[in-house]
């Protein structure tokens, strides 16, 4: 039987399942609408789709480094509640997905979802959909980012059991173990201090102009004379840049040193130059607007599922 677009649309409206899942269900049931509904329910796809309207702002981040230490990934997978983020199945899925990114090098989230998961004959998306139906919460792979070096190492640090994950890429021909230790220290620094930039060279002109304008207005509002405002602003801007630029931050393990000094000290010991080639920091749920739901409405929704 020919499966038409209107049939797919009707089934989707009945079940809230994905378009491709609806098409597959209709093919499997030879176009029988009621059997197709049952097919989707049996697969857990209908339930999973109904849960997809809820905001997933909790979850886990993780970081994973390749065996040779030259490639690393940081990944965020969201769930609706912190409770599910502590679920062993969920944690395993996040960890295995990070390994898949390193091994298969998908270009983006959609490509990642299409990759086979652990030679099971199912894709990453298939496994995720199954877990949504089984665990009973909406979940989603939100983002990932990869850093890679030809010479040097990529180090990682995971804070709070996955609340924050960081990878730091160091380019150097220095000894691997010393570089890995330095990289982990810098990753811890990034987790704690959340710098916006690596160095002053990375700070864009718009950011500088914007901050200067704010600082000038602050000084004028404080009643400072115009002739000293410029010097004051310069001083305040320098102080701010030391806070937002990683290399200029005070080192969390030793406040007498800057991060730049820690790197130069290690470089001197190894007799090799060291450069931070890249930094990525993911914090669970950052930038996601959590949807406030009325509890009574939520219960009513559950009763109609």
Automatic annotation (TrEMBL):
<dbReference type="Pfam" id="PF00889">
    <property type="entry name" value="EF_TS"/>
</dbReference>
<dbReference type="InterPro" id="IPR014039">
    <property type="entry name" value="Transl_elong_EFTs/EF1B_dimer"/>
</dbReference>
<dbReference type="InterPro" id="IPR001816">
    <property type="entry name" value="Transl_elong_EFTs/EF1B"/>
</dbReference>
<dbReference type="InterPro" id="IPR036402">
    <property type="entry name" value="EF-Ts_dimer_sf"/>
</dbReference>
<dbReference type="InterPro" id="IPR018101">
    <property type="entry name" value="Transl_elong_Ts_CS"/>
</dbReference>
<feature type="domain" description="Translation elongation factor EFTs/EF1B dimerisation">
    <location>
        <begin position="72"/>
        <end position="286"/>
    </location>
</feature>
<comment type="similarity">
    <text>Belongs to the EF-Ts family.</text>
</comment>
<keyword id="KW-0963">Cytoplasm</keyword>
<dbReference type="GO" id="GO:0003746">
    <property type="term" value="F:translation elongation factor activity"/>
</dbReference>
<protein>
    <recommendedName>
        <fullName>Elongation factor Ts</fullName>
    </recommendedName>
</protein>
<keyword id="KW-0251">Elongation factor</keyword>
<dbReference type="InterPro" id="IPR009060">
    <property type="entry name" value="UBA-like_sf"/>
</dbReference>
<keyword id="KW-0648">Protein biosynthesis</keyword>
<comment type="function">
    <text>Associates with the EF-Tu.GDP complex and induces the exchange of GDP to GTP. It remains bound to the aminoacyl-tRNA.EF-Tu.GTP complex up to the GTP hydrolysis stage on the ribosome.</text>
</comment>
<feature type="region of interest" description="Involved in Mg(2+) ion dislocation from EF-Tu">
    <location>
        <begin position="81"/>
        <end position="84"/>
    </location>
</feature>
